[in-house]
Amino acid sequence: MSKKRGLSLEEKRTRMLELFFERKEFFLLKELEKIAPKEKGITSMSVKEVVQSLVDDNLVDTDKIGTSIYFWAYPSKAKHTRQQKLTQLTQQIDECEKKIASTTKLLRQANSGREQSNERNSILEELTQKEKLCKELEQELERYRECDPEVLENLQKETLMSKEGANRWTDNVFTIKSWCERKFGLEKKMMDKSFGIPEDFDYVE
């Protein structure tokens, strides 16, 4: 004999709702764990999970009175909840269908004029060649960028600024050397040797 198949979660939910609808009473979880296995074949271990799933879906109401938590459900409430869910899903389906219709229309418009033809293939081939040529010209332009008048002008300006900066520092070094010579009586050669100043140190022409 084949082993008896256990109830699925959805089957347990359906049977648990039947229990509430038939009894029309308030229950503690412990009471449901005793009644459900006998009347609906739902194992006591899964009662809490089933009831909580029904509460999460707003099909079973719950409230705490003192230290006890009670559960109950009526057919009218379940019907209303399901009707709300059905309305919500219907609206979502309508919105999806509208989006699909809109996207399909845009797709048709985008594909209009893109039908395969010799003329279109010729244009696409020409476009590919021109894009390749454009890329080659950009690469060649990059090689000749050093000869660009604007680039050369900027380079000259930068060179002049560097030259002026170097001469300012050279002037500062000569000023400090002169001050040290007067203040401490140090010889220039000794200062040059001590501070690593080359003999040909001078302004940049």
Automatic annotation (TrEMBL):
Residues 16-75 form the Mnd1 HTH domain. The keyword Nucleus applies. Residues 150-204 form the Leucine zipper with capping helix domain. GO terms for biological process: reciprocal meiotic recombination. GO terms for cellular component: nucleus. The keyword Coiled coil applies. It comes from the Eukaryota. It is found in: Nucleus. GO terms for molecular function: double-stranded DNA binding. Residues 79-147 form a coiled coil. Keywords: Coiled coil, DNA recombination, Meiosis, Nucleus. Required for proper homologous chromosome pairing and efficient cross-over and intragenic recombination during meiosis. PANTHER family: MEIOTIC NUCLEAR DIVISION PROTEIN 1 HOMOLOG. Belongs to the MND1 family. This is Meiotic nuclear division protein 1 homolog. It comes from Stylophora pistillata (Smooth cauliflower coral).
